């Protein structure tokens, strides 16, 4: 049944012929842990993953989803439901992945899903269907490697995720079974600061990209203006040189013409003086 697992004789018989709890590799080499016995509440499943330095699986692409489904079929877990990391605990109107704090973008909900109410968690099955259980229902679960429990990162939002997952692991180790849910709900509802930091970071990245675009446009405009100024300078130099050459040519012509006039005047005077002298 899709609303929750019915722990029946048939289920137990099916489990006896199915695969066993343990670590498996997906087609791309990623390590996952698959648990099928005896059935876990979502909060217990989250802690079982954290104890292994893992987290409940994030299914954020069709490619990843199909790899998981093929793995479940190949190891005999077809037909069963498994908890993932997605939940609406911090905000019942939005489902987020536990590992990354990202809202669900890629999805494969069946008709009528997701449900919106208090404390719902995402379940997948091997038939490529997504639906939600109350997080207090028992189900199988899948863990995957959690980078935030293995190393820190200089990025601020990832540092916060590292701290969050470390705190989650500490709560799992310190809490008793009767108060585990309350303590994890409190932690998850307080982790919204991570989302806020992520949103601020995203906004700053957008602003940074806009500034880069504006700077590139300004640099391109300056480069274009510099090129135009260079062309104007070259034009002026060329034309001034031509004008100077033209003016020099005109001056030479003027001097030559005046010299010729002077020579003609000299010849005329000399001729007249010669005639006067002969006449005398």
From TrEMBL:
Keyword Signal: yes
UniProt keyword annotations, A-Z: Signal
Keyword hit for Signal: yes
Matches recorded under Pfam families: Lectin_C
Signal sequence annotation: 1-18
InterPro entries cross-referenced by the UniProt entry: C-type_lectin-like (IPR001304), C-type_lectin-like/link_sf (IPR016186), CTDL_fold (IPR016187)
Domain named C-type lectin: residues: 42-144
Protein name: C-type lectin domain-containing protein
Gene source species: Stomoxys calcitrans (Stable fly)
Taxonomic lineage: Eukaryota, Metazoa, Ecdysozoa, Arthropoda, Hexapoda
Gene name for this UniProt entry: 106084889
């Amino acid at each position: 049944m899709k609303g929750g697992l019915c722990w029946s004789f048939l289920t137990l018989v099916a489990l006896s012929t199915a695969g066993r709890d343990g670590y498996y590799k997906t087609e791309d080499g990623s390590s996952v842990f698959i648990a099928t016995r005896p059935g876990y509440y979502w909060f217990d499943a989250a802690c079982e993953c954290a104890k292994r330095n893992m987290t409940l699986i994030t299914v954020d692409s069709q490619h990843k989803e199909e790899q998981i489904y093929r793995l479940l079929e190949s190891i005999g877990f077809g037909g069963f439901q498994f908890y993932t990391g997605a939940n609406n605990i911090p905000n019942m109107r939005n489902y987020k992945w536990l590992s990354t704090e990202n809202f669900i973008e890629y999805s494969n909900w069946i008709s009528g899903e997701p449900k919106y109410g208090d404390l719902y968690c995402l379940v997948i099955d091997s038939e490529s269907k997504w639906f939600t259980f109350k997080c207090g229902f028992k189900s199988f679960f899948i863990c995957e490697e959690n980078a935030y429990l293995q190393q820190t990162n200089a990025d601020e939002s990832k540092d916060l995720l590292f701290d969050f997952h470390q705190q989650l692991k500490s709560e799992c180790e310190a809490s008793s079974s009767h108060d585990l849910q309350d303590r994890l709900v409190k932690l998850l509802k307080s982790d919204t600061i991570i989302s806020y930091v992520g949103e601020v970071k995203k906004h700053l990245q957008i602003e940074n990209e806009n500034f880069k675009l504006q700077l590139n446009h300004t640099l391109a405009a300056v480069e274009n203006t510099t090129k135009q100024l260079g062309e104007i300078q070259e034009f002026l130099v060329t034309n001034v040189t031509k004008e100077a050459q033209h003016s020099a040519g005109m001056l030479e012509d003027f001097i030559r013409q005046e010299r010729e006039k002077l020579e003609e005047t000299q010849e005329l005077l000399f001729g007249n003086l010669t005639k006067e002298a002969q006449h005398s």
